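Consortium newsletter contribution from the modelling node. Members have asked for a concrete example of what our holo predictions look like. Here is one, prepared for the guanosine-5',3'-tetraphosphate complex that several groups have been discussing at recent meetings.
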Amino acid sequence: MTTTTASLERETLRRRTFAIISHPDAGKTTITEKLLLYGGAIQEAGSVTAREGSRHTASDWMSIEQQRGISISSSALTFEYAGRHVNLLDTPGHQDFSEDTYRTLTAADSALMVLDAARGVQAQTEKLFAVCRNRGIPILTFINKMDRPAVDPFELLSQVETTLGIAAIPLTWPIGDGPDFKGVYDLQTKQVLVFERTARGKQRAPVQTAGLDDPELAKLVGADLAAKLIADVELIEGAMTVFESAAFLAGQVTPVFFGSAMNNFGIEHFLDNFVKLAPSPSATETNLGEREPEAAFAGFIFKLQANMSRAHRDRTAFMRVMSGHFVRGMDVTHTRTGRKLRLSQAHTLFAQDREKVDDAYPGDIVGLVNPGVFQIGDVISIEPKLELPDFPRFTPENFATLSLRDVGKRKAFMKGLTQLAEEGVVQVFFPTDGARDPYLGAVGPLQFEVFQARLSEEYGVEVEMHVTAYELVRWLAGDTSEVARFARHVEDDQGRPVMLFRSRYDLDYTRQQHPQIEFLPLPKDLTRV
Ligand code: G4P
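And here is the predicted structure:
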């Protein structure tokens, strides 16, 4: 198949690849369902509910997630909306998160930050926001659950500005909250969208509109709320910065929308604005300079996952197309090893179903069967020398040891350990004396549970986990000739010297005692110096 530059450009411009960031319970799952509903990817919101009593989005597939009713692994959901091809990267939103969450954000061109109107900015939102900020991607904000008693909207905006350091500019404004929630005012089109409660989640919410000077307004929302709205709008229009797309694209301001996902209110309006505002894929920074989406085909691996579905027990590598037209069966180079590959096993995933992908464009996510060659951050390209300069790794903050219940299972254990570490479920550190079992490191402690459950379920190996008192890990560089004497000295899976510490004090003391050694939060080749 040949691709003209014009069609490549057209398809790239149509792409919107984004992720949702939120604190657990803010409504990410509900919004995902509603977006898929409006995108026509599902017929009714209820259809992604697998069982009564627990909610699942189509992206939840592993039983541990089903038992917990949460989404642990990330996947990409795709739908067409208003002529745009939308890729929604599903990121976990539970108490804990792993490197996987962070890495998924590297494949997004923008992010939607969902806040609970009663809680405002919460701890996890801050962490995820910081990752997006670091990458400089534009962020949109949806303030959810307006049908519940909410914090004053001016206060919510100021919270976003002070805690996150980004100017929050409302594009809609709520009229009342809780039982008095009457709808939102669109500050751009100057129309009131009136909220009507619908049978829960079942259909697309009907919307009635009126202008601010419409005599119907007081009838629709009540005289008090109409007066308050008029006063609020005057204040906003008089005092607030006007929304400018350039400032949004530069990550300096976030447009804010209000609504209620559960009631389907404000979602369609958000989506209409999202496809207009959010950017299409842009250039990727590589060792050979900025790679424009219009260049020849190249993609990078941002996520690996083993045993994704019972029907297909294999490993999948998720690739984001960064440039060019991907065609199934094309011959490419795996640039880290120089190995030639034919990409014939490409698919998208939707719940348990796989669909073959025949072609894909910049911004699209393609699942590739991973015969064990792919690592996170690897590049697959027509261009054999292309690499990503620094793909983010994250420093674990939780450490556990483990013991094997049945020593006869050592081989299966090592296989599971290697594959799950390769996916980034945990990082593994080996004691240098070879006598003891390895240490596991994780960004969040839930990763240990996930590791244990998957080891049992997918590899038939039972282990006991013991949380340790270590809190910090440092990779060692400089003159490390003496480190073999240290008890806390371990090696990572590449054999690099590493040391574990119980406290920052412990680290600082050791550092003072050994000025010839550098203590780095990431391996030297991954640390920007
Ligand atoms: P998460 O993925 O961010 O963790 O949040 P999720 O969508 O699962 O929503 C968390 C809870 O908040 C759910 O209730 C959900 O129904 C509810 N919720 C989501 N959007 C709204 C909203 O606009 N208004 C109100 N009032 N509630 C909302 P749950 O009790 O945990 O589950 P369920 O009983 O609804 O299944």
